[in-house]
Design goal:
Blueprint: H1 10-20, H2 28-34, E1 39-43, E2 46-49, E3 54-57, H3 60-63, H4 72-84, H5 97-109, E4 114-120, H6 123-140, E5 148-152, H7 161-166, H8 170-173, E6 183-186, H9 191-194, H10 200-218, E7 223-228, H11 244-254, E8 258-262, H12 276-279, E9 286-289, E10 301-306, H13 307-314, H14 329-344, H15 347-352, H16 355-365, E11 372-378, E12 381-386, H17 402-413, E13 416-417, E14 419-421, E15 424-427, H18 435-458
Parallel strand pairs: 3-13, 5-6, 5-7, 7-8, 8-9
Antiparallel strand pairs: 1-2, 2-3, 4-10, 9-10, 11-12, 12-15, 14-15
Helix pairs in contact: 4-14, 5-14, 6-13, 10-11, 16-18, 17-18
The structure holds pyridoxal-5'-phosphate (PLP).
Organism: Tropicimonas isoalkanivorans
Cofactor: pyridoxal 5'-phosphate
GO molecular function, one term: transaminase activity
Length: about 475
Amino acid sequence: MNLISNFPPTAELQALDAAHHMHPFTDGAELAAKGARIITRAKGVTLTDSEGEEILDAMAGLWCVNIGYGRDSMAEAAARQMRELPYYNTFFQTSHVPAIELARKLAEIAPGDLNHVFYASGGSDANDTNVRLVRHYWAAKGKPEKKVIISRKNAYHGSTMAGASLGGMTGMHAQGGLPIPDIVHIGQPHWYAEGGDMTPEEFGRARARELKAKIEELGEDKVAAFIAEPIQGAGGVIIPPDSYWPEIQRICDAHAILLIADEVICGFGRTGQMFGSQSYDICPDIMTVAKGLSSGYIPIGASIVCDEVANTVAEAGDFNHGYTYSGHPVACAVALENLRILEDEKLVENVASGTGPYLAEKWRQLAEHPLVGEAVIRGFMGSLALTPDKAARAPFAAETGTIGLIARGHCFENNLVMRHVGDRMIIAPPLILTKSDVDVLIERAVRALDLTLARIKDEGLYR
Ligand SMILES: *Cc1c(COP(=O)(O)O)cnc(C)c1O
């Protein structure tokens, strides 16, 4: 096998990177000062950097490399399709085999009557599609004024104008004039940070009922849809109380609004079932998928749509929407091979009953660490809340994220990719993770937590 193993020295790459490459979600000046860590190759759950260091990737890239790195059959699927038909569009009454086969496959594995697929290039643009689709649907039903979409604070639905507007990240809304009109946000089911004296179950129900209150405030005839991640990912792996989703489902059933489950992270096995909606008994009208759909080997996303919405839209004439790369044949072929691997190697089962329970047990034990206020996990999505005061679930006196960033630095130095969101530490490892990988992950996490605690005590930040 030929690997691209010759590259310039790290310092040279870092200088070129800082000079010419604008990074997403990055402080450019800080990056230029420090230099990026440059990843050169990867296999299984392990990344290798330009200095030859081996790093355990407990984030599966950006929550996407579900089948792990370095799969030859994925490269072969892409090469085969590129030779056969590298590109053709699916506009104007044309189609091709990979787009058809993947749509059939997604309709087969998606729950309920989610039988129709509109392709995008990622999760953000799939959510843009959803905004236009649900508004077009209601207009086709003779209700053009039914166009408000209710989302949640601290949600993540992507970074395009519509995606970031649906999302509830204040830092994103602060840049670029967001949110766009007719998108509103209710509270998130984040008991640890916001639940006060309520029990998690009481709090979950209360937060769900904010949806009912918002529908009543706006008028049901103005509301098109509610969108939510089954488990909030980028918001900090916020696992909702068990009372939350049943109450949301009840409210959606009682009102004529569509329910969009953003499965971009939860989909394709991460929660221990194929979709997060199945783990929480959610019956969505539309699911957004991306990330694990191709395990990140190639960009692709999709909206998986129920019969009623798809049939109504089909009968309403042209849907004036689409992307040059909607249903890209190479991306579809790679996604099909990814789904074959996921099923043949029983990777969803590995999350539910193989490595999953072992990871959960070890992860929850991290709650015994003096710095950890809670250690929660569902399937292969886990988070730790860092705190100076466990009993009070108190934040640090330092600005939010200061301690998380320090902990993340110690993880990275100890060859573990674990992200921080504010002062929460999060993991979402590849679904191929083994029990011995778990042992390495936990050992490095503990070491990073110990180093973080020592350092913040030294620097007077442990308060
Ligand atoms: C990552 C993500 C998106 C955006 O997907 P992109 O492929 O980055 O556009 C949307 N929703 C959720 C829940 C995500 O985690």
